[in-house]
Amino acid sequence: MIPQNSKNLYVDWVLVFLYMALVIIGWFTIFAVTGPDTFSDIFNFKESYGKQLLWIGMSVVLIVFVLSIENQFYERYSGIFYIISIVMLLGLFVFGKNINGQTNWYSIGGFTLQPSEFVKVTTALAVSSMIGDNLFDLKKFKDLKYILLILFIPIAIIVIQKDVGSALVFFSFIFVLLRKGLSLQFFYTLIGISVLFLITVRFGVGITLIAVYGIFALLIYYAVKRQPLFFRRNLPIVIGGFLSVTILVFGSDFAFKKVLEPHHQDRIELWLRLENSPEKIRELKKTYGYNNDQSIQTIASGGFTGKGFLDGDRTNGKFVPAQYTDYIFSAIGEEFGFLGSSFVILLFLGLILRLLYKAEIQKSKFNRYYGYSVAAIFFTHFAINIGMVLDILPTVGIPLPFISYGGSSLWSFTILLFIFVRLDASRLDDF
Predict the structure, then answer these.
(1) Three-state helix/strand/coil letters over 30-52
(2) Distance CA 62, CA 67 (A)
(3) Distance between CA atoms of residues 127 and 176, nearest Å
(4) DSSP 3-state assignment of 172?
(5) How far out from the chain centre does Cα 271 lie?
(6) Bridge partners of 107?
(7) How far is CA 383 from the centre of its chain?
(8) Using CA atoms, how far apart are residues 354 and 263, in angstroms rounded to an integer?
(9) Residue among 385, 386, 356 at smallest CA distance from 373
(10) What is the pLDDT of residues 80-118, one digit of tens each?
């Protein structure tokens, strides 16, 4: 495993700097939310800020370990890593600890471990290894089937464990497959299904079907005008289209009402503004919409320059539940204002763009697609978390990389990033 040759490692210090900047900002924000007014007790490992500091220290050990392993090791054993991570996910059904209605953690002493965070890493390795093979071709149904199966397995398990937020992240690999050559029609189909789901939830089955059938009828009418024999020649396709749309509409309604949990339904309804009753709206804002409402008020109170570190009165008053985890960006908005929030967003954009640039210049296909995977995962987490905090997207439990509190997320994101740093470090020696 440990490199035995004398090849030089060309570590990308820009990625390292961006990582360090985000981790440091994350810890100071966690301290602002959970700590005292002074730094006299920062090594109190019973408190969240102390535990996070401990996890940051252990992340340094992880970085050294990841960088010390030869880069071929990650590709060679990617399949084994993937299988182990899936077994760990399945083990939660037997040995998992239930927290807030979700059985997503192993409890080890006073610490918890969330396998779904690490499955992102192993899935990125497995996907990159498969599509990086010279014989792999997305245009072949067999190859497409295998790659979709790799993605579907963790999604299905995590959804069953009621962690929809983590499951959504795996759809970020669609961007990687598009870069490999996945048909845009497949991508547009996914977008269409998503839009159809939202329209069905927003307007109901009846109105949605009437609207879709009307659009189909108009398209067929204009097609027949241009080609009189169009309907006769394409009858199976037309019937298949009508049946597919009908199944998707009824399936969307079933998925929303029967598959999603009640709290997911309420959050989507609140996001889509489905409720007309003022009393019901107030009730939802006090329950499922409370975090978003308080988060927006907290960010708005920070103004342009912010109230200053440790001086956020809404943060100090614990107005935003789970502020040091999923809603940590609201604390940044209050204490550092628009300027500080923009700086954090620029750091993330810089990290993602740097990853895309470095991925593009890789000689190894495995390295290249792994770099795309890392960038896609970070972008998805960043976009969904910020969108959720700003009430642009519905609430889902998804952390902000390197900033939100949590050992599992910090370690998994650290491993995810520094595997690519290690792969890129040997780029000039690859053949």
Answers:
(1) HHHHHCCCCCCCCCCCCCHHHHH
(2) 9
(3) 9
(4) helix
(5) 19
(6) 112
(7) 8
(8) 37
(9) 356
(10) 999 999 999 999 988 877 766 667 788 877 678 889 899
